[in-house]
Amino acid sequence: MDGKQLLKERSEMLNNVFALKHNKRVMLGSNSYTWSILDAGYRLNEAEFDYDKLEKVTRLHHERYGFDIYTDVQNRNPVRVTALMGGGFTRVDDVTESVWCEDRCIMQDDEYMEFVEDPKKFYYTKLFRRYCKPDITIGELKVAVREFNLWAAGNVARNAILVNEYGCLLYFRIFPQCPYEDVFQEYRGIKGAAMDLRRRKKELKALLDKKYELETYPTMLGGLEGTAGGYAGADTSVFEGYVAPITLAFLGHTAMNHKQFEELYWPYIKPTLDEVQKRGARVYIHMEGDGLRLADFFEDIPKGYILMHIEQDDPFEFRRRLPNIAIAGGMKTTLLGEKTQEECVAYAKKLIDEIGDGFVLDQDKMMSFRTDCKGENLKAVNDFARSYEF
After folding, report:
1. d(Cα 374, Cα 231) in Å, to the nearest integer?
2. How much is the pTM?
3. Alpha helices (H) in the chain, listed in sequence order
């Protein structure tokens, strides 16, 4: 079966997943990041700086394990770009087999209103704090931009390999996520953003409103209409090959209580979910941390619109609590990395049998470290799941 036929078959299976309808077998999702580089036999520094090797990793990962849907196509660490910018933001460590990212903030705690008053000026004057050395020149920036375009083109090429050659689907597309995620992950950092929920709530709310108006809302509409910009050379006018037109990634909610989420996160997510339903579209939600404590926000959404990848939540409890939401995840990396093939297969069978329809069997965590998984365990699980009719 060629790539086009496989993509059609997988797309039809995915339609059933969203609608919580029955498929003959469970779909398989890959949540593998730098683990797949190590599994391919490369050192991280060796592969991360070599786009040809990253393509080989992508091909080998699929040919070994045969997933239906992919999260990462080795596009997470643009280390050749950040190295040229001289900021030391990203460091690849082959001793610990890990990638280190400094928690470097763009915004000081008294600079919220500078963004609100002039976002463009803010970006031009503050953004370099995170990524660049203080004395970077225009010439060095131009070289880094050219390298960024090469990196982006490599991402597009690897996407095309998975979709066109192997007939697979991709989880991530356009990200109109809550503006607080930018504050949490980049502007103020985890600690600063969490403290500002109480210390600078008024200024934070003003920034969130401005970002939503100028960036989030237009990106959401563009994503749903197929007009939002992607990587250089990407065809974002069609949705073929993607799980959904838009993606929401939740991480900042982990620092919020229920009331804070209701006031400072949900108002920037709810319009997106409303628009998705209005258009009969779909959304993929990558829910890091715990999501079940927020179940009441999702319980009235009709089935057919959301596929949510869960991480720390119990998948069986999640299915009972939110029977209207399709689930991805569930396969514990603590099993894949530490237990036997038999134990891993037995747990995979339990997930498939008990969660049933509307489920993608995927790893619960982003597999980044060698100890996250044994290749033989992953292969045993996937071989079983592909042949198991439930």
Report:
1. 33
2. 0.94
3. 3-18, 35-39, 44-48, 51-65, 79-85, 112-117, 119-126, 128-131, 138-160, 180-182, 189-199, 201-211, 217-225, 258-264, 270-279, 315-321, 333-338, 341-355, 375-387
Q: Write down the residue that tokens 């997988």 correspond to.
A: 10
pLDDT digits (tens, 9 = 90+) for 1-52: 799 999 999 999 999 999 999 999 999 999 999 999 999 999 999 999 999 9
Question: Can you tell me whether residue 225 is helix, strand or coil?
Answer: helix
Strand, helix or coil for residue 96: coil
* 208 CB burial (10 A radius; 0-12, 13-18, 19+): buried
CB within 8 Å of 198: residues ≥ 6 apart: none
Cα separation values, 360 from 171, 225, 390, Å? 11, 26, 13
- Separation of alpha carbons 160 and 168, rounded Å: 9
Question: Is 330:295 a contact under the CB 8 Å cutoff?
Answer: no
Alpha carbons within 13 angstroms on the beta-carbon side of residue 297 total 20
What string of DSSP letters covers 150-183? Answer: HHHHHHHHHHHIIIIIT--EES--B----THHHI
Kindly report the backbone phi and psi dihedral angles of residue 143, in degrees, each rounded to the nearest multiple of 5, phi listed first: -65, -40
Query: Around 369, how many Cα atoms within 13 Å sit in the side-chain half-sphere?
Result: 12
**Residues 276-315 pLDDT 10s:** 999 999 999 999 999 999 999 999 999 999 999 999 999 9
Could you give the CA distance from residue 292 to residue 197 in angstroms, rounded to a whole number? 21
Hey, what's the torsion of the CAs at 55, 247, 221, 243, to 10 degrees?
70
- Give me the residue label for tokens 């993608």: 360
Cα(192)–Cα(184) distance, integer angstroms: 8
CB atoms within 10 A of CB 218: 14
Measured distance CA(259)–CA(263) in Å, rounded: 6
Structure tokens at 336: 């894949």
| Partners of residue 254 on adjacent β-strands | none
Sorted by sequence, the CB contacts under 8 Å of residue 202 that are 6+ apart come out as: none
CA 137/CA 94 separation, integer angstroms: 30
What is the pairing mode between strands 283-287 and 98-101?
unpaired
Which tokens in the block code for residue 220?
A: 């959401």
